[in-house]
Amino acid sequence: MALLALHCVGYDPGLELELALRAEPVPQAMETPEGGWLRLAAAEVRFDGAELVACADEGEAPLAALLAELGPERARAHGLEASGEAMVLAVDALHGTGAPVAAGTLRPLPGRYCALRVHLAEGLHLAGEREAPGDRAAPFDVASPEPLDVELPFDAPLALDRPEALLRTIVLDPRCWAAALPAEARPEDAAEVVAACLRVDSPPAP
Questions:
Q1: pLDDT tens column, 164-175
Q2: Which residue among 8, 34, 93, 117 has the highest number of C-beta atoms inside a 10 angstrom radius?
Q3: Of 26-30, 123-127, 162-166, 179-183, the least confident
Q4: Is residue 120 part of a domain?
């Protein structure tokens, strides 16, 4: 309830950014850069919120100044929320359909924003088998022990200066994991691989 109360401080009614999440379908086998194959048996991704990143030319943006004054609890109030509470979204990327699902709403202060900072929670899990050219398939199973923040740049700065409902979609693309996952994967590689394959899409122009 404290989070919900903080949410009302400094919020301009009507400034909202809806976030959706789209997990692309996973092929049965994905070719690796060296000509081998990667097959996934598990792909569990957990998102622990998101926030907008002000453009560098904004100087000390109003959001940054306010967070410096009020601390991290205030930051969550303008983060990814559902029903007034910080949202943890678990995704089984192995069964992605390519259809977007609602992920939450950002209610920021007015300003120009150039990126979306996404928080990946610990416990991100990738497992399957990797087959090098001319070799037998070898299993891999990695789970990230630490959370990771990822900044996803927008195609163009997002100007929030008037009441408006906007949409951006976080895209999870397992098809590029075959190129990003090292042959000798370490637990911490799990989050870095997923991060390297995230992007944020804008709606198509009308």
A1: 778 899 998 888
A2: 93
A3: 162-166
A4: yes
